[in-house]
Amino acid sequence: MRVASCLNKNGFRKGDTLIYISDQPVKVYAFLLGTWRANGILRAGYVEDYGPSLLEEIQESQAKWILCDSDIAQSVLETRKMVTWNVRVIAFGLCSEDCMSVDTFFQDDGKSTIS
Fold first, then answer.
1. What is the dihedral of CA 23, 33, 81, 58, to 10 degrees?
2. Would you say 42 and 32 are in contact if contact means Cβ atoms under 8 Å apart?
3. ∠ Cα 44 103 46 (to 5°)
4. What is the DSSP string of 57-95?
5. Whole-number Å distance between alpha carbons of 75 and 66
6. In the chain, what are the helix, strand and coil shares in percent, each to the nearest 5?
7. Distance between CA atoms of 92 and 67, rounded to whole angstroms?
8. Which of 17-21, 28-32, 44-48 is the least confident region?
9. Domain map of the chain by residue range?
């Protein structure tokens, strides 16, 4: 509920795609359920594949959200600049001001209406 609510509060809408690139299965699972609850689409990426591979995946899926580990967040942020639409980045651990922290989602009150 918290993840879905926070996604909704931050502009996630029915049919939006979230790509996840992480090796943290427990926390990713919460995002899987939250994205489904928010009527979104999930797509998996490999931690080793960012840059050109990620760009192709973003373009193919028209993804607007990427969930990743903090150690690749900067590369993901650079890759998202190559598309013409806004792509939000959510990172586990420390991240720059250009991305959202996973902690924000887990601290949400869970009360936002899903669009």
1. 90
2. yes
3. 20
4. HHHHHT--EEEEEHHHHHHHHHHHTTSSS--EEEEESS-
5. 12
6. 40, 20, 40
7. 8
8. 44-48
9. 2-106
Of 87, 86, 85, 80, which is closest to residue 65 (Cα–Cα)? 87
pLDDT at 88 over 90: yes
Helical (H) or strand (E) element with 18 = strand 17-21
The closest alpha carbon to 70, from 50, 46, 96, 35, belongs to 96
pLDDT value at residue 3:
95
Name the CATH code of domain 2-106 (choices 3.40.50.980, 3.30.750.24, 3.40.50.1980, 3.40.190.10). 3.40.50.980
Q: Are 52 and 74 in contact (CB under 8 A)?
A: no
Residues belonging to the chain: 115
Which residue's structure tokens are 């609850």?
A: 37
Percentage of the residues of the chain whose pLDDT score is greater than 70:
97
Contact predicate 53/72, CB 8 Å: no
Q: Could you tell me the pTM of the whole model?
A: 0.91
